[in-house]
Design a protein that fits this description.
The complex is a heterodimer of chains A (about 160) and B (about 220).
Chain A (H helix, E strand, L loop, with lengths): L1 H20 L11 E6 L27 E5 L5 H15 L5 E6 H6 L10 E3 L8 E4 L7 H14 L1 E4 L2
Antiparallel strand pairs in A: 1-2, 1-3, 2-5, 3-6, 4-5
Chain B lengths: L1 E4 L1 E2 L7 E2 L1 H12 L5 H18 L3 E6 L5 E8 L4 E8 L6 H10 L1 H4 L2 H12 L16 H14 L6 E5 L5 E7 L2 E7 L5 E7 L2 E8 L1 H11 L1
Antiparallel strand pairs in B: 1-4, 2-3, 4-5, 5-6, 7-8, 8-9, 9-10, 10-11
Helix pairs in contact in B: 1-2, 2-3, 5-6
Classes of the chains: A alpha+beta (about 160), B alpha+beta (about 220).
Amino acid sequence: MLFFRLWLAYARHCAECLLQRRIAPNIVVDAEVLGREVFSTSSFSESTGRIKPSLFLPKAGARKPLSVSRLSLARRALFVALGRHHARQRQRNFYGFAEISAEFVRQVRGDDGWQMDVQGTLLLGNPLHADLSISEDKGKDYDLMIADQLCTKARFRGLI
Amino acid sequence: MSATATLERPKDGFLQTDTQAFTDAWKDVIALSSQTTLAITRAQSLQANVGQMGQIFALDRHDLPQTFSVYSMRSHEGHLLRDIVARQTAETPASTTLISWLLDFNAWGDETERLKAAVKVLLTLKRGWDGYDAEPIDPVSARNASAFIDFLGERAKYFEPFADPNGLVGLEAHRNKSAAYLSFLRDGLIAYMIRAGNAIHRGNKASPETVKRVLDALF
């Protein structure tokens, strides 16, 4: 049922894209709010709500884009249910989302001119999934610089 | 008057105190107290607490007139950890107040101890702790972070630890419009990024001395 409703939301988004905005469904507009699922209390500060850089640091061996959900495209309860589903799969707890707008994501840049981008990437288990691009490996200090900008812009939003 | 206590960290990782040195030191401190028995009891408890925390310190008491005394708590290397003002009331001699304060674990455990304890907690994180296949925290990185916290001394109070998905320990600090992020590599070197206003300063394999100098200058 959860996945059916997610696909229904995606179908509605596709119809809107085609009929009103005339853009491809995988293009994430600046106004969209993106959420990265938080599965550990080590990923945010419980007292201040500040996101910790660990949530946005890529793994050195396998530098994959950072997964987010396109929260603006469906009811929040649907994404919370999806987060809980993922938590069960990974045997973790689900605490909420680190939320950031697509506009802010595109403002993230390195001091060498590299710029972060976001693109919708359809997954069978989450049609409202998107990827934040990451740079090639330029050193841990570079990754910290990017993570700092994301942490500054992102806000933790719990389940309550 | 100077009172010095030394605690030793044996190779097996358990902490124990140099009992005689500690007791001698505290005899000096409590000699001024009219409540000698009580003060000795507290000092003995303190000794046990200090043993648990593994703090290595020296206490120097500066005599000041009348109502209060200031004690400087220093590391064994002589770095100032904190000044303690012990107020004296009719019922409570300053040295007893000091001992009471020291016996309060939360008050006593200064920022560096709390921070090191928080770093130690990160070692409990198992593979996949972040839900995105993170590696467990490397004890070597945690040890390097703890050593740097000691090296940083008083300035460590601005930092809080974070776990890196690559199994490293990091420290972050935020002040006004500045931020500092340090990541402790396994070889003892540090990757760092310091943002001061719009300026970014970063380095990938810096020595602890270099990072401290940069922090002193920018943060």
